[in-house]
Amino acid sequence: MAAKKRHSSEGIVAVDRLSDLPDEILGDILSFLPTKRAVQTSVFSRRWKRVFSSTTSLDFHGCRNAASFRNFVDRVLMMHKVCIKRFRLSFWCMYKDEFSCVNAWIASALSMGAQELDLRINFQMDDMTLYNLLSSSLVTVLKLSYDDGPIQPGCHVDPILLKVPTSVCLSSLNILKLGSIVFPDADSTSRFFLGCPSLRDLTLSQCVWMDGEVYNISFSTLRNLTINDWKHNIYGNTPTIVLDLPNGVYFVCIGLSPKLYQIKNPNVLSTAELRLSGYLTIPEHHEADQLLQELSEVKILHLLRGSLKFIEASELPTFINLSRLEVGTTCYVKGNGWLILQKLITHSPMLETLVFKEGLHIFHDELTEFLEERTAPFSMNPIVIQVDHFTGSKKQCRMVELFLTCDAFKVKHLIVNKATNK
User: Fold this and answer.
1) Which of 2, 107, 319, 380 has the most CB atoms around it within 10 Å of its CB?
2) Which residues contact 223 (CB under 8 A, 6 or more apart)?
3) 3-class DSSP assignment, residue 342
4) Rounded distance, CA 170 to CA 194, Å?
């Protein structure tokens, strides 16, 4: 089919190549747009109306005019007759009479065969909707988070309580992300995760654990585990969450949560990433040291953001398998951070690569003084040093020169990656 040509008043010829694409490709393109934007293409022609009705992704984000938004979602779901792959809903119910609408939307998405669901809501789903959601063998990705949103004065909503049904069958679920979800008791929580036999990627963000119970959660297929609990979000006494993990898991800890989470078999972790920031009390500094003790057998360790400042050099274990160490900014750490880095290298007899992942955002004079005072190398093994986000400034060039000339490092190779503007 030849591309359509249109002549403007200035004589410029515009070629419409978009209309030459098959409906299936146009539908895929619309699937990347928010549904509010995608539905606007229906005004172009009858063909575009047909194209929109065949999209496989629906993305609804609530607006201030709740009545208008409800009518819009109802109309779209009514006219959509094909199976969908992705369903995303972000909506804050102001009043309880809106709950039934959201339950109906989720039920419609499931009935249309949705495989990926991203739900950001601020209320408890009814029992039937939750049962259907947790019994879908088609769902491969589930993101469920409680978000209180712009709640009006006088309106009250409760966090999402995971009222686990007697049977959970998420047999195809690969990715699960839960945010601010309340786990009511240990037994139902264990039953929930046992119903996810194919789970590979799990994120727990600011989840709520009850009353001082001991949660024993076992995984057989997990490959990535991310825990984001900057504040201990609990009811009552501090609970204990014991995680039984398979071999080769990539573990990410954002914030600080070892007091809550215990890894039953930390030796199975291959890679660990810590992203600690903010202010910690003295007991919480001790918790950071305890977490490093549990991670002493990892092969790859990332200490990003300001993580170095929370580590006590006197408490470091020996990292017997560590071959790659990536560190983040040390600009908040001053001289203590470089001392800790020295100890980390010294305590890692198998270290091969040291990466400054977030660049050299450091105190130049302080680093110069620190490195020039070293009269013996941190490690007897030659290591590869990699500097990311390199700007080429005089100070950073001097820092890189120090790595090559000082006695602190035995450098096998030096890799410098230029900073890019996003």
Assistant:
1) 319
2) 200, 201, 248, 249, 250
3) helix
4) 9
